[in-house]
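Quick note —
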Amino acid sequence: MPPISGKKVIYLVQAANAVIGASALLPANQTEGSWTQEQEMVDEQTKSGRNVGYGPKSENFELTLYAEQGDEGLAAIQWTYDNEEQLKVWRVELDLNANGKHNARFGYTIIESIEMTEPSDGFVEVSVSLPVVGKTQAGELAPLPADLIEAAMYDFETPGETGAPATP
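Predicted structure written out below.
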């Protein structure tokens, strides 16, 4: 099996107060994402030598994207921050697995920080730090709608396949 390409991983978000049946949102123009798991350890010296053991675990998601007016995913992130609520996050691999589904990781998060960088010669970049409440859960998602995947990437087109309608 080939390694997983970073282009084939997206992050979906949803405010925790979204109504049942609401779709997850794809924050537009994602450039980077990361999921970090950390395991602290207990390390004590005794007269008999060193004792080590597992301590608390922590996880974080980090998202970087270019801001776009009207982006519902970014709006959900901002609303969550402004209202001190939780944000649901899914890390989704776009390639289907052997079960015909997307491998995914899900967690409830809070927003530690939102940073907007506005360079004079580039796009407004948004970086979001999302510490996970508890720990994430592994699972599978049914195949995502084509329009959602197309928002993350586009397919090959032949000349004339898309564009403005012809005027009479």
